[in-house]
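Quick log. Single chain, no ligands specified.
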Amino acid sequence: MHQRPNGISVFFPAFNDEKTIGQTVAQALTLLPTLTDNYEVIIVNDGSTDSTGEILEALTHTSQHVRVIPHEKNLGYGAALRTGFSHANNDLIFYTDGDGQYDVGELAVLLSCLTAACDVVNGYKIKRADPLGRIFIGAVYNRLARVLFRLPIRDVDCDFRLIRRRALSGIELISSSGVICVEMVYKLHSAGCVFVEVPVHHYPRLHGKSQFFTLRRLSRTAIDFLALWIKLAIFKTNSVQDYD
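-> predicted structure:
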């Protein structure tokens, strides 16, 4: 049996997730006391224009473990992740999306695979539960990321990760768009971090629309992806340091 961790910070980036964020936070608050005595749940509200903000405000009054970090306007997925990482206080940091496509309960599976030699436990989708077009684009993106950046994991766009704080403290993240996941995995790997991969379930999006699969977001991601590749893989400009 694994020793209970000293503390876990869980955070969810949220953008117009009024239909799912309440249940997602509730799942986390039910699970975390079974894993550790010291925990917090942070929601980064990335400029939501629906009732997500009001729902999150109400959640802060139901549990002392809940904190909301608002962005006045939508700054992008990468910016939301950077905010979450910077506000997390505990030794272990877990994040996943607030749209309900992952089961927060599977954090327990990730935690069971976190050995002393491991820095990151990264989920990979057993089967992607999205429309065929999104599955195709996701597969192409994932393949390009693995080949061009020589990533050590099979599913870089599976946003279901458990990371040691010491690992994150050894890198600097700058991306504001969805390419932050490629940047983060690349820099953690370059810093010598050890990854373990765990299969996780992926569920259909029942409410709202993905903010990634729009022409504007796809175009920006493509440009950011190319710029990141030129910077990191071609010119070897990489902000990492030894965290041990």
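Strands lie at 8-14, 39-46, 66-71, 92-96, 120-125, 160-164, 195-200.
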